[in-house]
Design a protein that fits this description.
There is one protein chain. By secondary structure, the chain is mainly β. It has two domains: about 30 residues, no CATH class; about 80 residues, Immunoglobulin-like (Sandwich).
Length: about 130
């Protein structure tokens, strides 16, 4: 039995809140199949977490280099920052005993990034951040 390939996620450069899932399978014409995946959110953040009990605030947006993360619960254990191409920019463990964390993102160039937070149950919460020095 042949397994279906998992889609890869790509940022849509024309709309920062829309990500395209591109299947590795190709049409009979040889062209890749793209599926739009609109993630919920406003102009400053998006979230794909199903845990609605915990509130996460990421500020300031845009940031000059330092970003604060404040959560209503102390259940997050790791934060990852990736660029629009999916490249890892930062990976930092968080103290699950604290609900406020500061990230130093001064080394990042101006632009849009995604901040991903991993909770103790393995769920991921995504937030869009903007760095503007």
């Amino acid at each position: 039995m042949m397994k279906k390939p998992l889609p890869t996620l790509k940022a849509n450069p024309t709309h920062p809140l829309c990500i395209w899932a591109q299947a590795k399978a190709k049409q009979s014409t040889g062209r890749a199949i793209n599926y739009p995946l609109q993630l919920p959110g406003d102009q400053h953040s998006i979230s794909t977490t199903s845990n609605k009990a915990a509130e996460i605030n990421v500020y300031p947006i845009p940031s000059e280099g330092f970003v604060w993360i404040k959560t209503s619960e102390t259940q997050y254990q790791q934060v990852v920052v990736v660029d629009l191409q999916g490249r890892l920019m930062l990976k930092q463990d968080l103290s699950v005993k604290q609900n406020k964390h500061q990230l130093n993102l001064n080394s990042l160039n101006n632009g849009v990034y995604f901040l991903q937070m991993l909770d103790i149950e393995g769920k991921i919460s995504n937030h869009k951040i903007v760095i503007q020095h």
